[in-house]
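Sample pair:
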Amino acid sequence: MSGDMAQAWQYVYRCGRKGSEQDAITDLRKAVDFLEDWCANDVPVREVDPDVRHRVKCLLCDIHVVEEWKVEVLYRIFVADTYVREDVGGNSFRGPSLVRAAVIPVIQREIARREAA
């Protein structure tokens, strides 16, 4: 994964696994910062070996390790950074669009939920 996306992935994955609830919120805010930076810079996306893609899916399927809300977010971060093809509609896949529409809003909702608790 590219630097920004690897950092975002790490912060989402470890959110809530160390420190206080405020540390978890800080981790999520850092993830959003890295995602926004990635979207702002035209980082070239490169295709990943299908075996690597399969191993990432297997890692995320272990719900005992990964909180359920994180699974789709983490997979979408990975896909946005590594998928080079067309979407189901035949359009060129745009990772930044996926991140802006389906990753950042989910993380921001989780931040708001944690702040309200």
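The CA atoms of residues 47 and 84 lie 5 Å apart.
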